[in-house]
Specification:
Blueprint: H1 3-7, H2 10-15, H3 28-50, H4 54-80, H5 86-105, H6 114-135, H7 140-166
Helix pairs in contact: 3-4, 3-5, 4-6, 5-6, 6-7
Length: about 170
């Protein structure tokens, strides 16, 4: 055990994922989370097939980047935090439900479902970061990183919601 692990508060130690020399096992919760994003990618493929032109390709690319970013942030969280911990598991279930709403809105994200997509995306990004900030009350140094992510996610959420509520293309 390293000196930094020895000095961590016990509450923080319970929520962080333990890493071993043998690697890290993927939990069933993480696999189920990935399935939600498989659904999102299929929704993006449907969007592209319905709009086989440059505008459709650009819309699909922009939405793919947003979906990928949401997946990366959550995968990054589950890499550092134990997905078998009750709190992390509850957060992941909330992220999955919100991701399903986001994925269902993808085909019409540049039309009638823009606000639904933006609100779900914003809720997911802000909710996940806020959960981690609250969970890290014992570790100010690590918490500050997530406070910064939360601040940027909040600013981006305002822009997405403004865009989603603007209507039209």
């Amino acid at each position: 055990m390293s000196s930094s692990e020895q000095s961590r508060p016990e509450a923080l130690d319970r929520i962080l994922r333990r890493h071993s020399d043998d690697g890290q096992r993927v939990t069933q919760m993480e696999l189920f989370f990935d399935l939600v994003y498989v659904f999102a990618v299929t929704q993006l493929l449907h969007l592209l097939l319905e709009n086989l032109n440059v505008t459709g390709a650009l819309h699909t690319l922009l939405l793919l980047l947003a979906v990928w970013w949401a997946w990366v942030y959550t995968a990054w969280i589950t890499n550092g935090f134990d997905p078998d911990h009750t709190g992390i598991r509850a957060m992941l279930v909330g992220i999955m439900l919100t991701s399903l709403i986001m994925a269902a809105a993808l085909p019409k994200a540049f039309g009638s479902r823009g606000l639904v997509f933006a609100a779900a995306y914003a809720l997911m990004q802000i909710g996940r970061s806020l959960f981690v900030v609250i969970s890290l009350h014992h570790d100010a140094r690590l918490r500050r990183n997530f406070e910064r992510i939360l601040a940027w996610s909040s600013v981006a959420a305002l822009l997405r919601i403004a865009g989603g509520s603007a209507g039209g293309n």
